[in-house]
Design a protein that fits this description.
Layout (H helix, E strand, L loop, with lengths): L1 H11 L3 E2 L15 H9 L4 H4 L3 E6 L2 E6 L6 E5 L7 E5 L1 H5 L2 H12 L4 H14 L10 E4 L5 E4 L4 E4 L3 E5 L19 E3 L7 E4 L10
Parallel strand pairs: 2-4
Antiparallel strand pairs: 1-8, 2-3, 4-5, 5-6, 6-9, 7-8, 9-11, 10-11
Helix pairs in contact: 5-6
């Protein structure tokens, strides 16, 4: 996912490298729980996140600290260990993709390697333990505190605020192979059960006075 997202960000011209003298994980496990909750909720507008289930990330995995009543689940995702990706899944994503994220952190907490964890998730999709989203839905990633580690440049890069939409097993052809331009949809994890379309909303323009 990181390589695909990086290519999208380079194309759209939204990538910013974080200036760090010593590379450290973007997610700070030592944060007070209140700050972890605030970080998770930053993924979506308060009208959504204030009524969502909230999960905070500890070294042993996710801990549910707040029940929700709108079907959404907010947490800090980590597609890679150095990442920090505040995310809010809707009800469909909470039922389908979220369990794979919870499983991934449980495996990391047990000391499993990234390769072992990813293989176990792939096997889970094949066995039916995990399943792809069954209908369209939205993922909010509107936080200004999203970061991912990019191996090719050995840097942690800032993620722009964006939205994602479930597109299980989709390919670029399914999107009509759109041009590489700002605000055009792009595909991440093409062909996979958890493939998503990413859209970076246009910046709002202030009215002239």
């Amino acid at each position: 996912m990181t390589r695909q997202l990086l290519s999208v960000l380079f194309v759209l011209g939204t990538l910013r490298l974080c200036a760090q003298t010593a590379l450290q994980p973007a997610y700070d496990f030592s944060l007070p729980r209140e700050d972890k909750i605030k970080l998770a909720k930053s993924a979506a507008p308060p009208e959504v996140s204030n009524h969502a289930a909230i999960y905070v990330l500890e070294r042993s995995g996710y801990v549910k600290v707040q029940d929700g009543n709108n079907g959404f689940s907010c947490f800090v995702d980590r597609q890679m260990p150095l990442n920090q990706e505040p995310t809010c899944f809707d009800a469909e994503g909470s039922a389908s993709t979220l369990p794979t994220r919870i499983f991934a952190e449980e495996q990391r907490g047990k000391g499993k390697s990234e390769e072992e964890m990813k293989a176990a998730i792939a096997d889970g999709y094949k066995s039916g333990k995990f399943h792809a989203p069954a209908k369209p839905g939205i993922v909010y990633m509107m936080s200004d505190q999203g970061y991912i580690y990019v191996e090719s440049v050995k840097k942690i890069v800032h993620l722009p605020a964006h939205l994602m939409f479930y597109a299980p097993y989709a390919t670029e052809k399914d999107l009509g192979s759109p041009p590489a331009a700002i605000n055009m949809p792009r595909l991440i994890r093409a062909g996979e059960p958890d493939a998503v379309m990413i859209v970076i909303p246009a910046q709002a323009k202030s009215e002239a006075h």
